[in-house]
Amino acid sequence: MAALTLDTPTGPFTLIEQDGAITKAAWRSGGTDRTALLSRAADQIRAYFGHELERFELPLHVEGSQFQRDVCEAMCAIPFGHTRTYGDLARDLNAPAQSIGQACGGNPIPLIIPCHRILGATNLGGFSGTHGVETKVALLKHEGAASLLI
Q: Out of 56, 85, 86, 98, which residue is the most buried by the measure of CB atoms under 10 Å away?
């Protein structure tokens, strides 16, 4: 496994690559490897925060159940600046909203798989990244999806 950490407006962010795909990401320090894929991913994250990129184009591998992969795929389909609710995804995937919430919380590649775009029906919902909901709010504001927060 190779790992690369870059500084972002939401804190140090580490990407992990294995077998030619991004397999994990987290708000923490811990990597200095410069593979072609990690460099491309870091460039895309910088472009995202620079308002130059709205959709990541990277090979991803989500470890976990088929349900986890299905939820991650549904999250990737949500466009930049838009949000959906746990209930919306539950209806789309014919699953309980609580299961959707657990799968969102288990997202191994946050930011790139935009779990921050999933909200509760009447609140922000949770966020498993560092600083919790504060990071979620920062990402939603960055995308201009925060009108509900103001």
A: 86
